[in-house]
Amino acid sequence: MIFSKLVSFVLILQLLNPIVVLSSSSSLSSSNGLTEIPKKFLDFAKRKEVVDWMVGIRRKIHENPELGYEEFETSKLIRLELDKLGIPYKYPVSVTGIVGFVGTGEPPFVAIRADMDALPIQETVDWEHKSKNPGKMHACGHDAHVSMVLGAAKILKQHLQELKGTVVLVFQPAEEGGGGAKKMLDAGVLDNVDAIFGLHVLHSAPIGTVASKPGPLLAGSGLFDAVISGKGGHAAIPQHSIDPILAASNVVVSLQHLVSREADPLDSQVVTVAKFQGGGAFNVIPDSVTIGGTFRAFSKASLIQLKKRIEEVIKGQAAVQRCSATVDFSNSKKPMLLFPPTVNDKDLHEHFLKVAGDMLGNDKVKDMKPVMGSEDFAFYQEAFPGYFFFIGMQDENRPKLSSVHTPNFTINEDILPYGAALHASLATTYLLEAESKLRPTGGNLHDEL
């Protein structure tokens, strides 16, 4: 209600005095002004009180990791901080998600995204703020991602005069295989967003550097589970049985041919069988075997083709060995059928190069090779232009950091002001550049998302 009244007040002021507003916009949109914004925002983010605030939030979240669609305490903490900042938001969105708004409440709308969920990993790092939830850990840096978007919100709130539009703060659940991004889109709260930015920490790159590329950056992915059924019996008389282990072994070998013999060598693809479960005794042929794995590619067409052929190969090879097979491409923990490739918009790439270069120096902005990892940020990019990048956090004077998804993963908290300032700068300068192009005309104005 308060947000709606504020939006109406701003609209009335614009109608009564449009010349003042346009003059301000023109001044802020000057080339020199855009160049200075990233540096100014980074200086603000590096203030001790701001850094300490972000570090405190990150450590609270790290102590209480929650899995996908269970991020209730994390969501509560985020909402508390947004309330303190005086930032309106919508909640709940897709169970635990939050969507906040900073700016005029008018178009254009640009979003910055943070994922909130942790992983089912037991933390082995022994430190003061170690996970208090057994078997759960922020082993992918999502606690830092949340802190950086909240840091960006603080920067934006302190520089409202710079905003010529609205920055949408997206705190989404269940990135780790739960398709939280898709559910946020399905909720309809991002329908008017024009572009979105997202980042991920990178343990192997130096702090103060960023890396990305236009076009395909991360692979799309799918998963499969198959049960191959035969007829169990005594291992000494195999002729009286139908051996599903033999059939499953042939399946595993044949699945590798999908990449080596059927895929274009210039179209990178992966099929990995990572689960093989069958039997429990050395002298008993089991009734069935379960196998499972993942498949990945950089185009949706290749993903769909792999999915089709995986099912055909499993069922066909099972039949050759007189077995039957069922194939499932989803399960209760990972309900999404296919995660699309993460494809960066080319225009947003140019915007990223300029903003990151202005903030960090052009030599700190690195070109990144495509990676077979997968990100549900890709769902946003299917709906509207999006850009995803990585931010380095390795300090050369400190021990080498461990990789994500490992029990000894740690965050270099010196990264927080960089991520916060980049988020805020990318969004603010995008709005300043887009405002003149996207200014609504006539009675077609919508005053909130």
TrEMBL record:
Its cofactor is Mn(2+). GO terms for cellular component: endoplasmic reticulum. GO terms for molecular function: IAA-Ala conjugate hydrolase activity; metal ion binding. Pfam families: M20_dimer, Peptidase_M20. Residues 224-317 form the Peptidase M20 dimerisation domain. The Mn(2+) ion enhances activity. GO terms for biological process: auxin metabolic process. Mn(2+) binds at residues 140, 142, 176, 200, 405. The keyword Manganese applies. Residues 1-23 form the signal peptide. Keywords: Hydrolase, Manganese, Metal-binding, Signal. Belongs to the peptidase M20 family. This is Peptidase M20 dimerisation domain-containing protein. It comes from Gossypium tomentosum.
